[in-house]
UniProtKB/TrEMBL annotation:
This is Glycosyltransferase involved in cell wall biogenesis. InterPro entries: Nucleotide-diphossugar_trans. It comes from Reinekea blandensis MED297.
Length: 408
């Protein structure tokens, strides 16, 4: 059970009483009359064949307050798309699949590419962006949640607690970030958040000096959580990264677009686990190594937009400051683990810190070498300006894909 402490400058909504799921869903069903709710599920086809997603779908069958579920399907051929249609047709809610590798959506993407308003690389960011566009196009949902499809400890209460802050008619939150303890199988997980993001933010405060954005980011208990919810109007002008900086990028956009009192974070799960990435010590092009470079660059880019100047000397100071803070955190987490009867491998933790420290320099060098890099996907407001009928065409492509499969 969480405490009630409010840290930082963002409202924290705790789990203080283990309120029953039935009670929360009763409220959500009532709220849905005023603020219809939807869910975005960015998925790889391979996740349909795993253990997590079938369990998630089973739980979602009971979420009768949802007006719409939108699934973004990546890395699927036609036979796999056909399988996905049958797989998700168990859902009683209105739902649609965006077959991102299908000829119709690929043709639309090609046109948007020529207009220079489309994502430039494949990945979760692109998948989420198209799902957001579809949600805007249908207008069926006013309050929308997004969560991953690889959560092996999924329970429907996670969704209820995630949606509640943006669905309650008397709340004025535009955005809610989920948080939870990354503890599973007797271990503390979440290395990138614990050992990179938090100590890096603390190091930036020392090197850069007092900064409201850094204070904002450091207020989130789990900034890399892939679970968040928002009102539909948030989708119009948000610009999200297409790389591993997605979660940091979304928070940065919330900082830019909204006052702090319109944002919150909520405790959404007692236990949370999903598939884990390799450290990838030998290469910065995969695993947690690439993730750390992308996240670090995202923070550098945001500070640069505020007028901060970075040099190679700045990055060296930041690396040294980060390294000392991160090593102190390793000891802190080891003590926390021991007190709670959990395992934590100090050797592996320090290897991760060493890699992250080196990747701060790598990210800094890449930032200096490509200062005009544009990793952000354009906002949907800009896309509509470039292609006024884009929403109609997304809906038509999705409906035609589904009709073709069902008619076979």
């Amino acid at each position: 059970m969480a405490d009630f402490h409010q840290n930082g400058i963002i409202t924290t909504l705790h789990n203080l009483s283990d309120r029953s799921l039935e009670d929360m869903e009763y409220d959500l069903l009532h709220f849905s009359r005023f603020r219809p709710m939807g869910l975005i599920l960015p998925s790889l086809f391979s996740e349909l064949e795993g253990d997590a997603l079938p369990n998630i779908v089973e739980h979602l069958k009971g979420a009768n307050y949802l007006s719409e579920i939108v699934i973004g399907l990546d890395r699927a051929d036609k036979d796999q798309f056909r399988h996905a249609v049958g797989f998700f047709d168990e859902l009683p809610q209105h739902h649609r699949i965006l077959w991102n590798d299908g000829p119709r959506l690929k043709a639309l993407d090609d046109e948007l590419q020529r207009l220079e308003v489309a994502p430039r690389e494949m990945g979760k960011g692109r998948n989420v962006w198209y799902c957001m566009g579809y949600m805007l196009a249908t207008g069926r949902a006013e309050s929308i949640a997004l969560h991953d499809c690889d959560i092996v400890t999924y329970d429907r209460s996670l969704l209820a607690r995630l949606l509640y802050p943006v669905a309650h008619p008397q709340f004025n939150y535009e955005f809610c970030k989920g948080f939870y303890a990354r503890v599973a199988d007797g271990k503390i997980n979440g290395r990138v958040s614990r050992l990179l993001v938090t100590p890096l933010l603390r190091a930036m405060k020392r090197v850069v000096g007092p900064n409201e954005y850094l204070e904002f980011m450091d207020s989130f208990r789990y900034p890399l959580a892939g679970e968040f919810s928002f009102r539909r109007d948030v989708l119009n002008d948000i610009r999200i990264p297409s790389d591993w900086g997605l979660e940091v990028g979304v928070l940065s956009e919330m900082y830019r677009n909204y006052a702090n009192n319109r944002l919150c974070q909520a405790d959404i799960a007692d236990v949370y686990d999903h598939k884990h990435q390799d450290l990838s010590l030998e290469s910065t092009e995969g695993g947690l190594s690439k993730m750390s470079v992308d996240i670090t660059k995202a923070l550098f880019r945001k500070l640069a937009t505020q007028g901060e100047t970075f040099t190679s000397e700045t990055f060296r100071s930041l690396k040294a400051t980060y390294y000392r803070i991160a090593l102190d955190f390793v000891e802190t987490y080891h003590n926390d683990a021991m007190m709670n009867g959990l395992k934590l491998d100090i050797h592996q933790e320090e290897k991760a810190v060493e890699m992250f420290a080196q990747n701060i320099m790598t990210a800094g060098q890449r930032f200096l070498e490509a200062p005009m890099e544009r990793p952000f996907i354009p906002s949907w407001n800009r896309v509509v300006s470039a292609m006024p009928d884009v929403f109609d065409r997304i809906v038509e492509a999705v409906e035609e894909d589904r009709k073709e499969i069902l008619s076979e």
